[in-house]
Amino acid sequence: MAKKHPNLSAVDPVWQRVCEEAAEAIRVEPLMGGMVHSALLHHASMERALSFRFAMKLASSEMGEQILREIADEAYLAEPELGQVARVDLMSVYDRDPACHRYLQPILFFKGYQAVQAYRVGHWLWGQGRRDLAYLVQMRVSEVFGVDIHPAAKIGRGVMIDHAHSIVIGETAVVGDNVSMLHSVTLGGTGKEDGDRHPKIGNGVMIGAGAKVLGNIHVGDCSRIAAGSVVLHDVPPCSTVAGVPARVVGEAGCAQPAVMMDQLLDEDI
Question: Structure pTM?
């Protein structure tokens, strides 16, 4: 029987929904019972479940599950915002990804969501001056999920990375709130220069598959970057850029491109 958490719906409706979905998943497919119980229903909170998932996915012969679990538990306890942001990210994936039909899917199956939550633990470690541990997390996230986010990068809440294969986000990159990006996106530098050298992505931006945004440039709020584009210059707010090199080809087409996920360009562009 699923573990009961008294009054959980009153204090944490997101986690309550995850637990309800988990119980239903076991009812429909009993063979998933062991995995679902250990990953979700065994835990008293979403934070504890995320710590468990972090440890299970990133453990290796170099650092085992127990130590990684302790690291993540410490991070979630010391920084409650990590758990809050994890819930916002979860709802953002559910809202924007048409392949996501339940809250439990990102936690169990979606490497974009799992990679971002692991990055957030690494970023917390970086902020605590524990940089070798942060680099270890970055390395394992890259090896396990194919997502390479430097722990010093700053990523806002409500971020959705769809498919998430071959994502690269550099050290001085900044990603705003409610940003959506697809696979093979690079937020990178342009050479060997040191210092502030990576893109600054505004709030509500949508970045299409395979897009490369390079250098210390600014992408304005609520803009769209078309798939396959190479962006080398600032992007105005509420605009669409496309091409190699990218140029402004029109307005964003809606108030919230990252939420609408409309990747089509007008036929007359």
Answer: 0.92
